[in-house]
Design goal:
about 160 residues; mainly alpha; about 80% helix; rod-shaped
Length: about 160
């Protein structure tokens, strides 16, 4: 290639920004999955919490307090999942924007590469045409003119 892509450094920076945005999206997705696991675990704990077999007031109040605490914890876990969902949406939007910017520069680079390749092929064809024209000119100059005797270099000359 005869000409470098002038926006190559910008494309490199955009690629790095896209990679960073993709890493942030992956981290947000992992945090969301962890929050969802905690919520699911809390739901299971709340579902398995039952009243004691004994009916005394102390045990009943302790079980009720435990269920109330688990209910509050479940509400907190659900809000954590919603917050994590919001972070995933924001990170996904950031990655999409970075990808769009990178893709636009990649298309410009592809067009540039095609133009440079076409210019190189055109220059190569011109050189080949010049070589062919010189060979024809050389053959025409070496060919015997009408009325001249042709001399065959393979025949011995007798004197």
């Amino acid at each position: 290639m005869s000409r470098p892509f002038r926006l190559a450094s910008l494309l490199h920076l955009r690629g790095m920004a896209e990679d960073r945005a993709a890493a942030e999206l992956a981290a947000a997705a992992r945090l969301r999955a962890a929050a969802d696991d905690r919520r699911r675990t809390t739901e299971i704990m709340l579902g398995s919490a039952s009243l004691p077999a004994r009916a005394d007031e102390l045990h009943f109040r302790a079980a009720a307090a435990s269920r109330a605490a688990l209910g509050s914890l479940l509400t907190e876990r659900r809000s954590e999942v919603q917050i994590a969902d919001g972070r995933v949406v924001v990170a996904n939007a950031a990655w999409t924007a970075a990808r769009v910017q990178t893709k636009a520069l990649e298309r410009l680079q592809e067009r540039h590469d095609e133009l440079v390749r076409a210019e190189d092929e055109r220059a190569e064809q011109m050189v080949l045409d010049e070589v062919g024209a010189r060979m024809l000119t050389a053959r025409a100059a070496a060919a015997p003119k009408p009325g001249e005797a042709s001399v065959d270099a393979t025949e011995p000359v007798l004197s």
